[in-house]
């Protein structure tokens, strides 16, 4: 069984930008979802995947990922996917750890979130000065929720 352990953070500054070593645009859409799981298709830099994640709140979730032909993924996004998310992912090295910083576009423009995948939910890691509050347990920051309830629709102070 696949397992994802991921912590998610808001950012407290732009210092991460000078540390980013790679970036790529991603488009993803959700084919279906329920109270137990979601199924997503994502296209990024010449690759495409179907991804199934458990709808578990917190830092640990079941996750399965399967490659699909890129042309088929685009067709699924164009004809089958409902809500979609567009973002540029930046990979940022910090003392041997790789943070994935997602800079959202479209209806989620203005939102930037850093994610860190871990081998253990309680793993210690160095916190860069640009890392802000943790939002791992706030479902609003999950991509499935951002697709359905975009950041631009949030009431400020939410």
From TrEMBL:
CDD domains: CYTH-like_CthTTM-like_1. The active site is at residue 30. SMART domains: CYTH (SM01118). Residues 2-148 form the CYTH domain. PROSITE patterns: CYTH. Gene3D superfamilies: Hypothetical Protein Pfu-838710-001. This is CYTH domain protein.
């Amino acid at each position: 069984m696949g397992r994802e352990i991921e912590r998610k953070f808001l950012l407290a500054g732009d210092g991460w930008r000078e540390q980013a070593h790679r970036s790529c645009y991603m488009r993803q859409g959700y084919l279906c979802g329920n109270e137990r799981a979601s199924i997503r298709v994502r296209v990024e830099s010449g690759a495409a995947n179907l991804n199934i994640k458990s709808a578990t709140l917190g830092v640990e979730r079941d996750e399965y990922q399967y490659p699909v032909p890129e042309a088929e993924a685009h067709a699924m996004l164009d004809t089958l996917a409902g809500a979609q998310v567009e973002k540029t992912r930046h990979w940022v090295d910090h003392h041997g750890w790789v943070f994935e910083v997602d800079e959202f576009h479209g209806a989620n423009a203005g939102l930037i979130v850093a994610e860190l995948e871990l081998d253990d939910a309680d793993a210690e890691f160095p916190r860069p000065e640009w890392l802000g509050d943790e939002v791992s347990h706030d479902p609003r920051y999950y991509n499935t929720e951002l697709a359905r309830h975009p950041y631009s629709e949030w009431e400020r102070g939410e």
